[in-house]
Amino acid sequence: MQVTRDFSHYVKDAGAGLSHIDLAVEGVSCAGCMSKIERGLSAMPDVTLARVNLTDRRVALEWKQGALDPARFIDRLAELGYKAYPYETAGAEAVEAEQSRFLLRCLGVAAFATMNVMMLSIPVWSGNVSDMIPEQRDFFHWLSALIALPAAAYAGQPFFRSAWSALRTGNVNMDVPISIGVILALGMSVVETFNHAEHAYFDAAIMLLTFLLVGRFLDQSMRRRTRAVAGNLAALKAETATKFVGADEISEVPVAAIDPGDIVLLRPGERCAVDGTVIEGRSEIDQSLITGETRHVAAEQGTAVYAGSLNMTGTLRVRVSAASEGTLLAEITRLLDNALQARSRYVRLADRASRLYAPVVHATALLTILGWVLVGASWHDAIVIGVAVLIITCPCALGLAIPTVQTVASGAMFRAGVLLNSGDSIERLAEVDHIIFDKTGTLTLPDLEVVNASGIPEDVFKLAGQLALASHHPVAAAVARASNAKAPLAGAVEEPGQGVRATLDGKELRLGRPSFCAAEQLASDSRDLDPEASIVAFTDGEKSYVFCVRQGLRPDAQATISALGLRNIKVEILSGDREPAVRAAARALGVSDWRAGVTPADKIARIEELKAQGIKVMMVGDGLNDAPSLAAAHVSMSPISAAHLSQATADLVFLGKPLAPVVAAIDFSRKALLLMRQNLWLAIGYNVLAVPIAISGVVTPLIAAAAMSGSSILVMVNALRARRVTDRRS
Amino acid sequence: MEVLVYLVPLALGLGLIGLLGFLWSLKSGQYDDLEGAAWRAIADDEPPREVAPTVEAKPSTVRPA
């Protein structure tokens, strides 16, 4: 099939007479691929830059303006064995990339300052017990201040900002005690240096920032990587639409280049890539990806169609509408907004911990000061000891306890085929004890398949497949796919609304409606057996056969459901599809709890009902109609084939055909939550040991530094255990 | 101990050069692809006058993600 592809939307002007394009590439995983692609593309004339980014799985290309059509790069990559498609950096990803660079800059500044302040601190520590003269010590302290103060002011920004925004809304997060600790430590150290004191805590404050920034950066880069992969997958779907560029002139353009008001052509067998309204034509459309309903719907002038609808029979002209014009979409958007508001009330484990932690620590410091004053210490000494308590308890380990586990666990999930959309979803996923599955597209695969293939002779199947290649009808396409037929039959004619026919060796072959192939009796028998399947008949002039085509269950759906049972998770199916279809799927999977014909509002009502009983519900769904319930559930998951809105709403997205990532995600998140709790206890245990030393006033900067790095390393090492889960099935 | 007067600024100056180098490398995009950079270090140099289509990647032990 030769279509003109117009990628000009993605081409950027790189200046100096060069054009630039970014391509997402599938299957780049090693150094070999990297050099193969780079050499293969650089060998093309006029290409000035071809550079693979192995982290993001993308290629950046530059070439002399006007010398090459970007489509040629994609063909070249296809020759090399890689599927590629132009990629456009979405807003959210650009923000993440900028943030990650900022964190790295902060980390660089903090690490530089830590090393140099340490270089000055260690002589002071050893000099204090040997022969350092006070003037030298003061000199080193002043130099430390000179380095630490500006460095902390810069590198502390991520914490200060977050603490400030939390305080302004009347909340406390982990960054509040961190910021207070750092600022007080630095402030006290400056005052102490003025007074020619023996101890200053510049090194502790800046080291704390360095450790925490390492945690933040790792967390951020994992999230960025996940987002990049999700972005690539979206790009590699290569969604295009046939747009009318003139009255009768059409052009195949990427969906990103389509604006509301444009008119697109939707041919039989094509999946609609935009939301819009039919303005001309008549057809049947399969809306199962949107509503979960597998029965086909008639489409005519005025019918609203949504991205993901599959056009079955006729050609349609569709006027693209703005995002929320459609009635279904408007309703779903309204439900979604309500649900998302409720969602934001969830308080993360780290914030819950800091809500307890901050008051306790600050009260302890205050009591220490008052206590020392009561037993006769000067205010100055008492305050110095009080601040030392704050420095010792400064939540270095506590601040790392959760992000490090999150980073390691999300990396492990990433390898298991699960992408995380939101940072706190691991915690919420770990608490799940009830899962609601949508049926269509979630338990079943979105592609049609032939379910009775084993009952049909191989040569007949092959022949039917060859004949089916001549038709655009999705059901025929499924037959062709299942038969692995490659060569279409010569002279095949499609009779619209009936089927295809061809003549081979004097025999007339027909594939299509049962009436077209004189196989009504056979078809009605099959329909009794499997009322949900679309029936397509085939005759070679003598004998007739029927193919039952339907969306098949995911290959491991049943194993996954029983694995969930082993983990004491209840499973329920709520589907927008008709009762017989849902019943058949539920029976095949051994799920006793199911409801059919459920509207989006009903799904939310059911989730609320379960929530009211204190049950933590996970929703797994893909349709547009599932988006509100995905947001309403405690945590939610979507397959990568889901409607855009659903995918954006879900906390987690899983890749590929198997359903197993659902179980893997639960296992990893449970392990991660366990380790987060463990890490919090480790951090608290460390404080319990260290605080008495601080209260007694014998803490030196050396003890503070050793305790801080020791506890940080301990929680980081413990977090590494989130990489593996023990398989309970074995 | 007068040695400190120039040794300490010298040490700090060297550290500062390191920091500036880091910031420069960050700005020039050297941290955009940490994984690829690791592999590039051990990749073979580009052979001269190689005909592109015949370049075949060696089978790798790295599993595709």
Protein traits:
heterodimer; A: 730 residues; alpha+beta; Alpha-Beta Plaits; Calcium-transporting ATPase, cytoplasmic transduction domain A; Calcium-transporting ATPase, cytoplasmic domain N; 24 helices; 27 strands; 52% helix; B: 65 residues; mainly alpha; 2 helices; elongated; disordered C terminus
List the helices and strands and how they pair.
The complex is a heterodimer of chains A (730) and B (65).
Chain A: E1 12-15, E2 18-25, H1 31-42, E3 47-53, E4 58-64, H2 70-80, E5 84-86, H3 91-129, H4 134-155, H5 157-168, H6 175-194, H7 202-236, E6 240-244, E7 250-254, E8 263-266, E9 276-280, E10 283-286, H8 288-291, E11 297-299, E12 304-305, E13 310-311, E14 316-320, H9 327-343, H10 349-374, H11 379-393, H12 396-415, E15 418-420, H13 425-430, E16 434-437, H14 439-443, E17 444-450, H15 458-468, H16 474-483, E18 493-495, E19 499-504, E20 507-512, H17 520-529, E21 534-539, E22 544-553, H18 557-566, E23 570-574, H19 579-589, E24 594-595, H20 600-612, E25 617-620, H21 627-632, E26 635-639, H22 644-649, E27 652-654, H23 660-695, H24 701-719
Chain B: H1 3-27, H2 34-40
Write structural notes for this entry.
The complex is a heterodimer of chains A (730) and B (65). Among the domains of chain A are: 8-88, Alpha-Beta Plaits; 240-338, Calcium-transporting ATPase, cytoplasmic transduction domain A (Distorted Sandwich), CATH 2.70.150.10; 446-552, 3-Layer(aba) Sandwich (Calcium-transporting ATPase, cytoplasmic domain N). Helices cover 52% and strands 18% of the residues of chain A. Chain A has a seven-stranded mixed sheet with strand order 15-27-26-25-16-23-24, sandwiched between helices. In chain A, strands 7-6-8-14-9-12 form a six-stranded antiparallel sheet, with no helix packed on it. A six-stranded antiparallel sheet of chain A has the order 17-22-21-20-19-18. The mean pLDDT of chain A is 83. Helix content of chain B is 49%, strand content 0%. The longest helix of chain B is centred in the N-terminal third of the chain and has 25 residues, at 3-27. Chain B is elongated, with a radius of gyration of 21 Å. Chain B starts with a helix and ends in a 25-residue tail after the last helix. Classes of the chains: A alpha+beta (730), B mainly alpha (65). Chains A and B meet through helix 1, helix 3 and helix 4 of A and helix 1 and helix 2 of B.
